[in-house]
Amino acid sequence: MDQPAEAIPLQNLGLNGYEASAYVALTRRGRATGAEVARLAGLPRQRIYDVLDGLVGRGLATVEPGRPAQYMAVEPDTAINILVEARQAALAQLEQDAARAIALLTPAYRKGRSETDPLNYIEVLREPAAIAKRFGELQAGAKKELLIFTKPPYAVEPGENVEGLRLLSRGVAARSVYERSVYDDPAVVDAVRRFVEAGEQARVADHLPIKLVVIDERVALFTMEDPVAGSTELTIMVVEHPGFAGLLKLAFERAWEAADDF
Q1: Which class does domain 7-75 fall in?
Q2: Where in the chain is the domain with CATH 1.10.10.10?
Q3: Quick count: other Cβ atoms within 10 Å of Cβ 91?
Q4: Which CATH class is domain 122-261?
Q5: Sign of CA pseudo-dihedral 122, 125, 130, 132
Q6: For a Cys staple, 200 with which of 27, 172, 180, 195, CB 3.0–4.6 Å?
């Protein structure tokens, strides 16, 4: 279909190609039947009445019923104003939708600026100094409870854990299960006795699978030993996740019930 030049701006104003060509054809006749419009505009006859009804619906043409019906174009200045007003209304709606989208998206965007990693509640520490420092920070922040599996090697020697004694003096409840190998080192035994005297509840088990600290059912620290190298080097994971901490507390309680008094 070859379109007349007058159809191009009409398409820019929102008409499709068939509608624009049909309107131009109608402007060249006072009135025309659907068949005449199809012939003048070079449009398929099986589509012409849908196209003309669309123009009538937009207010760009009128129809006189009859056999056959006669169609007339409204004056171009009226038709163009109708198209412009429709575009302006659509633009106003678009601006409202844009403002609403901004209002909905901005809070999540701003919050997301501080969330650079979807797993930022997980830390992995390998340097002994960094492990000791982080353990001290988390332990100092305990409010209610510490649950601990203790076995060598130690990032912080039990006898040097001054912060642990401070927590007990503040009334933080602490329960520790020590691996029975604790008895192999008299200095560690003396340190545990000081903790017990300060209020820690202590038990011993023949074997503990990992070293573990659960703080206030919200933070867990635990060792991840190299399956080949064993425990020669410490790797500590810190997970700040209440659900995970709650799961590890269930495991702790099972071991606690099976352990012997220190």
Answers
A1: mainly alpha
A2: 7-75
A3: 10
A4: alpha beta
A5: positive
A6: 195
